[in-house]
Fold this sequence. Notes:
The complex is a heterodimer.
Chain A: H1 3-34, H2 41-56, H3 62-90, H4 96-115, E1 131-133, E2 136-138, H5 140-162, H6 164-174, H7 176-181, H8 186-212, H9 218-233, H10 238-258, H11 266-278
Antiparallel strand pairs in A: 1-2
Helix pairs in contact in A: 1-5, 1-6, 1-8, 1-9, 1-10, 2-3, 2-4, 2-8, 2-9, 3-4, 3-8, 5-6, 5-8, 6-8, 9-10, 9-11, 10-11
Chain B: E1 2-11, E2 14-24, E3 29-34, H1 40-48, E4 55-60, E5 63-64, H2 70-75, E6 78-81, H3 93-100, H4 111-114, H5 116-125, H6 127-131, H7 142-155, E7 160-164, H8 172-187, E8 192-195, H9 199-205, E9 208-213, E10 216-221, H10 223-228, H11 230-237
Parallel strand pairs in B: 3-8, 3-9, 6-7, 7-8
Antiparallel strand pairs in B: 1-2, 1-4, 4-5, 9-10
Helix pairs in contact in B: 3-7, 5-7
Amino acid sequence: MPVSFIVQMAVSGALMGLVYALVAYGFQLTYATSKSLNFGQGELVMVSAFATLSIMGTGLPYPLVVLLGLLFGALLGLAVERTGVRLALEQKSEGWILLTIIIGLFLFSFAENVWGRDDRPFPTPISSQPLNILGIDVTPVELSVAVGVLAVMLLVEAFKRTTLLGKAFEAVSADRDASELMGISATRTVMLSYALSGAVAALAGILVSPITTVGPTMASALVLKAFSVAVVAGLESGFGVVVVGLFLGALESLASFYVGSGWRDAPGLVLLILALAVRPTGVFGKAVIRKV
Amino acid sequence: MLEVKELYAGYGLSEVLVGTSLTVEAGAVVALIGANGAGKTTTMRAISGMIAPSRGEVLLDGQPVQGLPASKIARLGLAHSPEGRKVFAPLSVEDNLLLGAFRHLPRFFGFRKAGAADLAHVYDLFPRLAERRGQLAGTLSGGEQQMLAIGRALMARPKVMLLDEPSMGLAPVIVQEVFRTIRRLKAEGMTMLLVEQFAQAALEVADHAFVMERGRIAVHGTPADLRRDERVVAAYLG
């Protein structure tokens, strides 16, 4: 087997892994302000992708379609915060776990009823004619995934590190009561993080759908991998999810080729179990994960 | 500047404050003293909105603020340096201070420039914080964290500042330093409500003092009045 072929497999897999990283980053954003996650994040990706597809049907120019898709994701994120998370957090309960799972199930049925059960192609103006870069075939669509994921993560990280509002995110996470005393509204900060997380989920859907097609079942496959990535990397490090995402993507692609396509999902689950057994704070994490 | 009228508040079903009333005039330092469990910290928390009072009124600069969220009250000009300091441990000293000024700094860019004058004032007050501006707040000593908590409250340019137990758990030398700072802030015209275990020290800086017992004000007056009150002397100043 030529080495270049192995590299080819690894690179295509790694680019897919960046999508897991982006969905995992959506987990991190809300965890950072409220120590809560949306377990229906995968359904947010799927429903936003479907919604974007419907918006595309109106014939608007592609950049505007993407923008509206992101906006839809942000609004959906806000809806999850309002219905599934806020009341639970106010009562210092873990109820958000069940509530976000339920919202996910609801969105799944909603999508099946509105858009049907079949996978649908997701048209994009970006070409899928492979380019040859250093002996490896990469399509512009795959490249758009890499560029989109990294650009958005850099943008959000820059916001968190260099703006006062971004620092307020960290303050709310460190001490909710004390941030309130500084005039920082904890509720609004958590809302903003859910909106950002929703937009990030929509972007993941828009980037991955031209490659995988859109269908109600894309949610569960994506979220499981993304969850593995988030746990293995730790829920704090944006850099960590990129590294682990790339690694897992490459590993999956190689496993499905060498061991058999039925084994595609195995590496993610093995890594998840290993991480929980050996290093529950994640490879790049600091804080101890609270057991509930 | 700050007026509390017949305030009732507590946690769950247990009512801690049962009709507390007090007044803080503009530019005055007012001490709130009393035994543990008398309701001093609860009073502070009910004023700043950390807990919602069930009855009564809190007027900040004449405006009723009871029942508003704490962040709203803070934006109206009340700074509360809470019991136990509550600095943002994973953030640097300077970021802690800048967040203290959240209510009047730009949210996105240019906040460092806009906050420079306030930072300079706090660093002048606490040169130790200037030395440690890049250090994470969680790695500071207890005394330094207290200075940071006071500095952070000052950054807001508040109309009224609440200081809850600024001397708690500190070495005597540091306690003296904290009181020197309070005196200096008083000279600068800051309006303060101070909760203290060290009643003697508090009475030395205060213009007026309120003594709390079981959720309401038992006695109040100038420090000189209280020193003449045998019961107060026996219970708190003896």
